[in-house]
Amino acid sequence: MAPSKKSPKVKAKGKSGTKTAVKKVAKKQKVAAVTAGRSTVNKKAAPAAPTAAVASVPRIKGMPQSLRGMKDTLPLEQKFWRRVKSVAEALAQAYGFECIDTPILEMTSLFVRSAGTQTDVIEKEMFSFIDRGGDNVTLRPEGTAPVVRAYVNHGMVNLPQPVKLYYIGPMFRYERPQQGRYRQHHQFGVEVFGDDNPILDAEVALLAYLFYKELGISSIVRINSLGCNECRPTYREELINYFRPKRSQLCDDCKRRLSKNPLRLLDCKEEGCAALKDEAPQLVDSLDDSCKEHLMRVLEYLDDLQVPYVLDPHLVRGFDYYTRTVFELIPEDGDNKTASLGGGGRYDNLVEQLGGRPTPACGFGIGLERAILQMKAQEIDPPDDSIPDVFVAQLGDSARRKAFALFEELRDAGLRIAGNFTKNSLKAQLEIANRLGAKYTVILGQQEVIDETILIRDMESGMQEIVDYKKAVSDLKKKIVKS
Ligand code: HAM
After folding, report:
1. Which has the closest alpha carbon to 360: 345, 373, 374?
2. Which residues pair with 441 in a beta bridge?
3. What is the mean pLDDT of residues 283-308?
4. Backbone angles phi, psi at 311, to 5 degrees
């Protein structure tokens, strides 16, 4: 910004009032200085981390801490959350999905009936307790079953189908916490009800892929078909026949699951079990004609949509409700040991299983913490739209009152404003403005109140100019548009 013609006047003016105070601040704290319209000191420092100090507070014995695997999301992190949520919402809405929120707490039986009793989530990972009324309730470990319940409870089967819903919210699983695996995580999920057309399977996989693409992350879809009630029993038998002679090499969970739920063996992460998986029979070989055709159509659509995928004939998922298509997203350079960025598939029997009319459905869930970890690993820094355009600083009681009104005028004009009306020292206020990364600070002192002016300070260059109070809003708007 060119130095204002008015700036020299700033220096020449009397000893009391804002100018002197600003000069004192500049001298003492080296925040900035204005001399005869030229900036002499420092560029604005990068906004300091407002939460960094919090992170360094030593743990004191007895001080309450958050639970293991559950995290606070501090202000500095919020720009990542705003970004993933806004990409998710924009994408879902553009594809005609409507938002649904379901309670975080549900009856335990909802998850047991939907996910399957032999799954890790049900056997080991649920946060379940008996509430004061004696009900067995669970913090939702996933979003599909609650959305299916809502679909049935609210008679959405009577709406024009397909019904397309999306949600963003926390899920709870009592897992061993590690990087990318938490006891409270958040998912962006979509569910489509009322049609078994393979184009819908392709559409949800596309959406998951596009979510990451919009964030600047390349991903790839691993996909498989689990068949249907007609063809899966044959495969089940084949799996049992394959694993039974190798029973001694299986982990205890798999030994137990071998006869009841052999598909789960393909999902086991234990080394011994995972090694046996490679030679196991493949489900695609047992698919009946209609399931084979369904899978081929999904893959053709993905080809048309240019969604990169690999067919993984041993891919199964952590819940028993899936039929036909299952898929997971992994980073482009990942392999089948990489934690999934998201996953989903078709579940044509679940609505009926939970008491509704037979209704085909499919969807996905994406772990937002994992999306953010990918962004950070790839140094994708989302714009921080919480940075204020203007910080309103004041000195003295009459100035404070006027500044308060100005704050609202600027906000009303669509600018992002910050201020701290409890601080009396200009130094403290400029430090806050600096820390927040404000582009401009407007300063109102007693002199300005008398003169009906304000001082506008460019926080980047340190230059200041006096502006007629009445022109303050329009002047600042012009500056912000230009910057
Ligand atoms: P899921 O694969 O269990 O599927 O979870 C979806 C995604 O949530 C995972 O791919 C992963 O990105 C993330 N995730 C899961 N557990 C954790 C965790 N402990 N910490 C951090 N992130 C995690 C479902 O939940 C299905 N309801 C998805 C679905 C929707 N299928 C059909 N419709």
Report:
1. 345
2. 391, 457
3. 96
4. -85, 120
**Integer Cα distance of 6 and 464 in angstroms:** 9
Q: CB–CB of 339/371 below 8 Å?
A: no
Residue 417 CB burial class (10 angstroms; 0-12, 13-18, ≥19): buried
Q: What is the pLDDT of residue 55?
A: 55
- Checking if the pLDDT of 10 tops 70, the result is no
Q: Which ligand 1 atom sits nearest the alpha carbon of residue 183?
A: 19
Domains of the chain: 7-47+387-482 (3.40.50.800), 79-231+287-377 (3.30.930.10)
Share of the chain above pLDDT 90, in %: 77
For residue range 351-374, what is the model confidence (pLDDT) as tens digits?
A: 999 999 999 999 999 999 999 999
- Any ligand 1 atom below 6 A from CB of 191: yes
The residue contributing the CA closest to ligand 1 atom 11 is: 367
Mutual angle of helices 252-260 and 232-243, in 10-degree steps: 140
pLDDT, residue 259, reads 86
Q: State residue 54's pLDDT score.
A: 53
